[in-house]
Every structure is written in structure tokens, then in C-alpha cells.
């Protein structure tokens, strides 16, 4: 695939993925509330989920998304329910000022499922790959090697964007020293997570 095509794809993805949406909101809220140490399964699932959408678009499998529409709807609402549950957990989380003990980590499998549900159920991501991407790249001419190049480009862009958000959220978390500050941060994170759930639920 031509370098110019990859750069155009990378630029479009940078704008689309870099703008705060439900996935980024959920990621930032998670890091501010619990820290960044156990967030990797969530990130990995987000990246794999986007790779799935890219693959569906490249190989002309958009009809699969239509054929199995019910399955994607179920995944979407499972993601909404889990994000709402996480929001409730953040809102009611106990606050300790000593900061000595790390917050209890969630099971990696649960985080992975949450990240996958958020990504596969996010209409913003689906529309980028199934509707916008074909206007950027001639998908009919993309070979298996071209798909691999697009996937690698996608991974590099998403890793850079998401890790930047994780770093910013982690830095913000370090500034929270008092119980009051932590409680406010937890409530803001809960509201953000709840907002992400509502945004996914509201979109069709």
C-alpha cells in the first residue's frame, strides 16, 4: 500500500480516535478512579475491537455487521450495563487518605470484556470503519499485505493516543492527595463513566 494512503488513514484515525468519546471517557475514568496498573486488558480489548471493525471493512464484510445486527446490539447493551455498574462502583468507592494500599484490581477478564463491549458497541467506531474508511481508501484494491499495513498503522496510532490519555489521567490522579479530592475525583469519574454508557446507549 502507498505511504500516502497510510498517512491519510493515520491522520483520519488520529482525529477520530483522539477526540473524546465513550471509549476514551471510560478509559480516563477508569485510570483516575483505580490507577493505570491494571488497565492493560481494557486497552488490549479496545485495540482488538478496532482491528475487528477494520477487518470487516477491508474484506467487504460490512454485511456481516448487518446480518448479525442483533449480536452487536446485545454486545452494545452489555457494555452499557457494565459501564453503568462501574460508574456505580466508582460513586460508592470508599476513600482513604493514607494512600498506602493500592486499590483492589478488577479481574483482567472482566476488564477485557468491558473494553471489547465498549469498542464493538460504540457506533462512533463502527461508523468510522464501515462508512468513513471506504471514502478515504479504495478498499477493493487492498490486499492481505495492505490489510496488515493498515492494521499496524491503526495499532501505532491507537497505542500513542490511548497511552497519552492514560498518562494524563495518571498524572491527574497523582495530584489527588486528600480524601475530599479523591471523593470528588471518584464522583467525576463515575459521572464520566455513566456519561459514556449513556452516550453509547443513545446512539443507534
UniProtKB/TrEMBL annotation:
Membrane topology label: Multi-pass membrane protein
Any Pfam family matching the protein: LysE
Record's GO cellular component terms: plasma membrane
Lineage: Bacteria, Pseudomonadati, Pseudomonadota, Alphaproteobacteria, Hyphomicrobiales
Origin superkingdom: Bacteria
Subcellular location: Cell membrane
Entry keyword set: Cell membrane, Membrane, Transmembrane, Transmembrane helix
Provenance organism: Kumtagia ephedrae
Protein name in UniProt: Lysine transporter LysE
Any one GO MF annotation of this record: amino acid transmembrane transporter activity
Ranges annotated as spanning the membrane: 41-63, 70-88, 154-172
Amino acid at each position: 500500500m502507498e505511504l500516502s494512503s497510510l498517512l491519510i488513514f493515520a491522520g483520519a484515525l488520529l482525529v477520530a480516535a483522539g477526540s473524546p468519546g465513550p471509549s476514551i471517557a471510560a478509559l480516563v475514568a477508569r485510570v483516575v478512579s483505580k490507577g493505570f496498573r491494571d488497565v492493560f486488558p481494557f486497552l488490549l480489548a479496545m485495540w482488538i475491537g478496532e482491528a475487528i471493525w477494520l477487518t470487516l471493512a477491508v474484506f467487504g464484510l460490512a454485511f456481516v455487521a448487518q446480518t448479525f445486527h442483533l449480536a452487536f446490539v446485545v454486545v452494545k447493551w452489555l457494555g452499557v450495563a457494565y459501564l453503568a455498574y462501574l460508574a456505580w462502583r466508582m460513586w460508592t468507592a470508599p476513600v482513604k487518605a493514607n494512600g498506602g494500599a493500592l486499590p483492589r484490581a478488577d479481574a483482567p477478564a472482566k476488564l477485557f470484556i468491558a473494553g471489547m463491549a465498549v469498542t464493538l458497541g460504540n457506533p462512533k467506531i463502527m461508523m468510522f470503519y464501515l462508512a468513513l474508511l471506504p471514502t478515504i481508501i479504495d478498499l477493493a484494491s487492498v490486499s492481505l499485505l495492505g490489510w496488515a499495513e493498515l492494521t499496524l498503522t491503526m495499532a501505532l496510532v491507537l497505542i500513542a493516543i490511548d497511552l497519552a490519555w492514560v498518562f494524563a489521567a495518571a498524572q491527574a490522579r497523582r495530584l489527588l492527595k486528600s480524601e475530599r479530592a479523591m471523593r470528588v475525583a471518584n464522583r467525576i469519574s463515575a459521572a464520566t463513566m455513566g456519561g459514556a454508557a449513556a452516550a453509547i446507549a443513545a446512539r443507534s
